[in-house]
Amino acid sequence: MIELSALRKVYPSADGPVVALDGLDLTVGRGVVHGIVGRSGAGKSTLIRCLTGLEQPTSGTVTVDGTTLTGLSEKQLRAARRRMGMVFQHVNLLDSRTIAANVAFPLEVAGVPRERRRARVAELLDLVGLGHRAGAYPAQLSGGQKQRVGIARALATEPAVLLCDEPTSALDGETTRQILGLVRDLRDRLGITVVVITHEPSVVREVCDEVTLLEHGRVVQSGPLTEVVTATGSPLSRALVPVPDLPPEARRDLVEVTYATDDVATRDAFAAVAALGDDVEVLSATVEPLAGRRVGRLLVDAPRSGTDAVVARLRAAGLDPVVTGREAGGPDPAAGRREGVT
Ligand SMILES: Nc1ncnc2c1ncn2[C@@H]1O[C@H](COP(=O)(O)OP(=O)(O)OP(=O)(O)O)[C@@H](O)[C@H]1O
Ligand SMILES: [Mg+2]
After folding, report:
1. Quick one: 160 and 296 in the same domain?
2. Which residue's alpha carbon is at the smallest distance from atom 30 of ligand 1?
3. Taking phi first (over 0 means left), then psi (-120 to 50 degrees means alpha), and beta for anything else, what does residue 257 get?
4. 9 lines ligand 1 (CB under 6 A)
5. 55 Cα: distance to centroid of ligand 2 (angstroms)
């Protein structure tokens, strides 16, 4: 559905060229919700602008829904863009128009006749749960309702792809959950492909099937959520499955293991640890839902026998543990929760 190949974008600037995207390859399949995360300046917005054809890549290709955007004329680009819906952090609604008229706007531009427009707008507002507010003006809506209007408007021309740049950053927790629920629902009902740029781990956890971590315009890690968090030494693991705060005495090396519960049952992981006897202690054990699966994480302390024995035991049980903590030079075990994805 979406294919980026060797994508490079270099911006000229007074201080010399800025490489925003540096040879990026990425494929997103039809009907997948794909998250893009990374620090400020990693190239996330540049990536979305290249996807919409608003920005011409310096080299490489962008293919969306079978159309290669590079080298298209303005007119062809406009047609291709109609197959893409955009949702932003701040919804730019026309204040002087009702929400129905806002949703109708892209259909007017596309030359859809009035009767068809009316029917389509009613359908779209129902889809986002605002059928009863068609005559309201933007000023009369909450932030979450405005974002729903933004989503309805983005879907007006029946795009194959929905591109969202920080869609919930301006919303509170509960409203964020509702909007993400709507996005998943739309994907299920319309089979639409969704790309979501976000800095919030909770957004990735709640709505994405796959995630890509960008750093300096390059892909650092990419894949289905459960694969990404259970991979050895995964940079995204702590961000997506946070570690609880630990007592101060837990400052020596610890063994950490993250697993999908349908690969290894939590009781089997516990049994492997318990087999080591009294010396080992489970400092934390969590199981969290993630992309329709469940991911478990154990943090194990072995003050006397040391981490090697624990690692060997867990490996024998089919798990993939890592040693973490101060002495291993790894991050502070409590850091994941505080830092977030970026
Ligand atoms: N029009 C531009 N001209 C020059 N440099 C640019 C331009 N747009 C972006 N950049 C640079 O390209 C790099 C990537 O920027 P981009 O906006 O894609 O980052 P981002 O990941 O979206 O960051 P944020 O999380 O802050 O939105 C940055 O170094 C930025 O300064
Ligand atoms: Mg950005």
Report:
1. no
2. 41
3. beta
4. no
5. 14
Ligand nearest to the CA of 212: 1
Indicate whether residue 19 lines ligand 1 (CB < 6 A).
no
**Residues 215 and 246 occupy one common structural domain:** no
CA nearest to 88, candidates 54, 124, 113: 54
φ and ψ at residue 220, rounded to 5 degrees: -90, -40
Please name which of 150, 145, 117 lies closest in space to residue 132, comparing C-alpha atoms. Answer: 145
- What is the domain count for the chain? 2
The predicted-structure confidence for 128-163, as pLDDT tens digits, reads as follows 999 999 999 999 999 999 999 999 999 998 899 999
- What the block records as the tokens of 49 is 């602008």
> Is residue 26 domain-shared with residue 154, that is, in the same domain?
yes
**Contact, 33 vs 7, CB < 8 A?**
no
Last residue of a domain, which of 202, 228, 254?
Answer: 228
CATH number of the domain bearing residue 121: 3.40.50.300
State the residue for tokens 């190949």. Answer: 5
Q: Check: CB of residue 203 under 8 Å from CB of residue 35.
A: yes
Render pLDDT for 30-88 as a digit per residue (tens, 0 to 9): 999 999 999 999 999 999 999 998 899 999 999 998 899 988 888 898 888 888 999 98
Query: What range defines the domain where residue 270 resides?
Result: 233-339
Q: Which residue has the tokens 């072995």?
A: 302
Whole-number Å distance, alpha carbon 133 to ligand 1 midpoint, is 37
